[in-house]
Amino acid sequence: MDIGIARTFLEVVKTGSFVGAANNLHLTQTAVSARIRVLEEQLDRPVFIRNKAGAKLTQAGEQFLRFATTLVQVWARAQRAVALPPGRETVVTVGAELSLWSPLLRHWLLWMRRECAEIAVSTHIEASERLMEQVQDGTLDVAVLYAAPSRPGIIAELLFEEKLVLVRTTPTNARLEPEDHVQIDWGEEFAASYQAAFPDQPNAVVSISYGPLALDYILATGGSGYFRKGFIRPYLEEGRLAVVPGSPEFSYSAYMVHSTKADPGVMDRVRAGLHAAAAIAI
Q1: What is this structure's pTM?
Q2: Domain contains 166
Q3: Domain count, the chain
Q4: Burial 28-60 (b: 16+ CB within 10 A, else e)
Q5: φ/ψ of residue 243, rounded to 5
Q6: Domain housing 191
Q7: What three-state secondary structure class fits 242?
Q8: Which of 82, 127, 203, 255 is the most buried (most CB within 10 A)?
Q9: What CATH number is given to the structural domain containing 31?
Q10: Does residue 69 sit in the same domain as residue 95?
Q11: What are phi and psi for residue 265, nearest 5 degrees?
């Protein structure tokens, strides 16, 4: 079985169409169709029903789906095992959202170096949706992200629950205008909760998708915004920021996500390191 064919099959399943799969894989639609045709010839039965709405799995396709996922994951693990650095037992590939790297993943990397020197580590930064896709297709062993969606064959373990708090720059007697509030993208759930809590708040003049950049901005110009409590704790202690009294707090949970087929022993060590890092960072 050509792994490229299995990946193409999974991409058609994910996008629901040959066109979408071709775009994501940077192939022509003809090439995607040819790969699926080869697969169907090898299985001696169709795996998709094609129509104007896209592509839907046949019963045979449903059966092949779990095997295709396993094939791709096993191949990815085999590639990493063959490329092991000298003196290492295995390699673990971990991805995370950008906002989680500092300080959580930095502490985790230091913990792994100290406690699990026999494990090689490969790390990546991606958007949450892409991280989930990479865990599903076996490219990643573990993803650390907020608001993990439910996916078949994937386990999402609560890593920690953090709070988003409204803070402002000091001195607190300095007047701030509504346009001094910076809107930070903490996901759809936060946006809905924020809108419910502040229905009369005008649209933000400045919106920033990355928390650390938003923090640098308000520290330079003065202003307010919602931030992860653990991240801004040093600024609260230094007196550069202050929590706005009476403001609502919002839950913001982080998850460790991995395949049900992941090596339990490796996951135990990764999990222990992440919990140790969370105890320091949060």
Answers
A1: 0.69
A2: yes
A3: 2
A4: eeebbbebbeebbeeeeebbbeeeeebbebeee
A5: -70, 135
A6: 91-282
A7: strand
A8: 255
A9: 1.10.10.10
A10: no
A11: -65, -45
Structure tokens at 125: 């930064």
Q: Are residues 75 and 106 in the same domain?
A: no
Longest dimension (CA), the chain: 75
Please give the C-alpha separations between residue 189 and each of 196, 224, 247, 253, in angstroms, as whole numbers.
11, 20, 18, 11
Cα–Cα distance for residue pair 17/120, rounded to 1 Å:
37
Name the helix (H) or strand (E) containing 59. Answer: helix 59-82
Report residue 242 as tokens: 């202050």
Report residue 266 as tokens.
């490796």
Instruction: Specify whether 124 is located in the same domain as 69.
Output: no
Clarify whether residues 49 and 12 are in a common domain: yes
Q: Are residues 184 and 44 in the same domain?
A: no
User: Along the 282 residues of the chain, how does pLDDT read in single tens digits?
Assistant: 789 999 999 999 999 999 999 999 999 999 999 999 999 999 999 999 998 888 999 999 999 998 898 888 788 778 777 778 888 888 899 999 887 887 889 999 999 999 999 999 999 998 888 899 889 878 889 999 988 888 878 999 999 998 999 999 999 999 999 899 999 988 888 999 999 999 998 899 999 988 989 999 999 999 999 999 988 999 999 999 999 999 999 998 899 999 988 889 999 999 999 999 999 877
